[in-house]
Write a structure and sequence with these properties.
The chain is α/β, with parallel strands linked by helices and about 525 residues long. The protein has 2 domains: about 350 residues, no CATH class; about 150 residues, no CATH class. The protein is about 60% helix and about 5% strand. Strands 1, 2, 3, 4, 5 and 6 form a 6-stranded mixed sheet that branches. Helix 1 packs parallel to helix 5, helix 2 packs across helix 20 and helix 19 packs across helix 20. The chain starts with a helix and ends in a 20-residue tail after the last strand. The N terminus is likely disordered.
């Protein structure tokens, strides 16, 4: 007995050291990749947010822009600086998940949770690309840990820690709001913890989180609730209400692909097991993790019965679901299944990273999503910059894209990182509507980049003269294979801007129209 007691602290320390080494090792891998891969369009768009700091933005919560703005001001406008917030945040999320599993299941489960979160493609990609997902993941994991400690101990510091992370998460991504009802339902359904809700502490913690988020509400009120209208639109509010299974298969398939099929099965199995054991007060952490994971998954499962759901939207839910999977299966139960899950998930993540850095898989460029997202943007920016320099009035020439994607990539990769414009009147509203007005650009010339060779006819609506475009093939050179064209873009020389930047709704019943109606 004494020997076992002496060995337990040693095992705990070994598990903690192994978890820390694992998390730091994969963070180092992501740092190396982040420094060498071009920015994807959405990453370049969030970098633009960091140049135009505000309390809110058209289509998302503002924290990713603030974080990138801070890092680029400290470290310069590099791909690594843009991605550093996600790298750090996902590493912190994995650490919180490991500590949660280690405290309430076992040290071995803590190491298993670190392994699982570092293995899943969802979290590896979220910990590399500059998107709101990594920041939300840190907030979700932090709020889950401190929320569990708060229910266990009732201490002020734990409730306030949960409230701070909850507010931080809502600043990162609006779906964080779903976390609070899940924590509340757990308390209401748990006789052993229900008395905690009679204290003012949880309610003041919730109020603290809402207070942190209040500047975003103020910004939306001042800007026609544009973020709320955008979220309603992508959630299918414009569509006639109907339930169908058209998008259900896409949703389930995307979840299996992003986690890896065995990991998806394992976390769903773990959630179902926690649900079955809900009444067991001795295993309250299972119920707690269930209620901090299942509501978000259920929400997007329900939405998928009405409209399309992007695969990454419910990603934060898999953090506390991973705690359950690690606690139930990673600490010795069903070892073959657990090992197969880790091998598959690590294998898929490794292939993704290998294909991004060194495209060895024989996938045609036009079918390779990684190549399409990352390939050719520096060359496009350089070519657009040369064209702008050759214009008759270079000082009075601006760069633009029809879509925010090309406009943002031009801003990052054109020489001098100019203030680019999105002429989005024919596409959809976007964040550029807040940054430029027609009066800022009237009479100026422009160089634009689009995906289509026939855009001149619409550009003539907003310019006095538009020349026929120059095609620019953007290519990649895979190892052992001939050079391949990733995409072809078209560079337009335009003269005499007449006005007409902002989106014109095709249907004024479109919920995004707002003040445009």
């Amino acid at each position: 007995m004494m020997d076992a007691m002496r060995s337990e602290p040693s095992e705990n320390r070994a598990a903690i050291r192994a978890s820390a080494a694992l998390i730091l090792g994969f963070a180092a891998v992501r740092v190396i990749l982040a420094a060498r891969l071009p920015l994807a369009p959405d990453e370049a768009n969030y970098w633009q947010w960091g140049r135009y700091l505000d309390w809110g933005y058209y289509d998302q919560a503002p924290l990713i822009g603030w974080a990138i703005g801070l890092c680029t001001r400290l470290l310069g406008d590099t791909e690594l600086a843009v991605r550093l917030p996600s790298i750090l945040a996902m590493s912190g999320a994995s650490a919180y998940v490991a500590v949660l599993a280690g405290r309430y299941f076992s040290p071995r489960a803590g190491l298993a949770a670190a392994l699982l979160t570092q293995a899943m493609p969802e979290f590896q990609v979220g910990g590399l690309l500059a998107t709101p997902d990594g920041l939300q993941a840190l907030a979700w994991a932090g709020a889950a840990y401190h929320g569990a400690r708060a229910y266990e101990e009732g201490a002020w510091r734990q409730w306030l820690g949960a409230g701070l992370w909850f507010g931080f998460g809502m600043l990162a991504k609006f779906t964080m709001v779903v976390f609070a009802p899940g924590v509340l339902v757990f308390g209401l359904l748990s006789p052993g913890f229900r008395q905690r809700l009679k204290s003012p502490r949880p309610w003041l913690a919730f109020a603290l989180g809402c207070l942190l988020f209040s500047p975003v509400l103020w910004w939306n009120a001042e800007n026609g609730w544009s973020s709320a209208r955008h979220v309603a639109h992508i959630g299918g509010a414009d569509e006639r209400f109907a339930l169908h299974v058209k998008y259900l298969g896409d949703f389930l398939g995307s979840q299996a692909a992003l986690l890896s099929p065995p990991a998806f099965i394992l976390v769903i199995w773990a959630l179902s097991r926690a649900f079955r054991n809900m009444r067991d007060e001795k295993c309250w952490i299972g119920a707690y993790c269930f209620w901090t994971a299942a509501p978000l998954l259920a929400l997007f499962l329900a939405i998928s019965l009405h409209s399309r759901v992007y695969g990454n939207w419910p990603g934060a839910a898999y953090l506390t679901a991973s705690v359950l999977a690690a606690g139930y299966f990673g600490a010795g139960e069903r070892p073959r299944l657990w090992k197969a899950t880790l091998y598959t998930a690590f294998g898929l993540s490794g292939l993704l990273f290998l294909q991004a850095a060194w495209p060895v898989l024989p996938i045609p460029a036009r079918l390779d999503r990684i190549a399409f997202e990352l390939g050719g943007w520096p060359e496009m920016g350089a070519a657009a910059g040369r064209t702008a320099a050759s214009m008759p009035r270079p000082a009075d020439t601006f760069l633009f894209g029809i879509r925010y994607q090309e406009a943002s990539e031009l801003a990052f990769y054109a020489p001098g990182r100019p203030r680019t414009v999105s002429i989005n009147r024919w596409t959809r509203p976007n964040v550029y509507d807040s940054w430029f007005r027609d009066a800022d650009l009237l009479g100026k010339d422009a160089v634009g980049v689009t995906r289509f060779p026939d855009t001149a006819k619409v550009l003539r609506q907003v310019f006095e003269r538009v020349e026929e475009p120059t095609a620019l093939p953007l290519s990649r050179k895979p190892p052992f294979r001939a050079e391949e064209t990733v995409r072809t873009v078209y560079i337009y020389r335009c003269f005499g801007f007449k006005g007409g930047l902002r989106w014109i709704p095709k249907d004024f019943n479109d919920i995004r129209a707002g003040s445009e109606k």
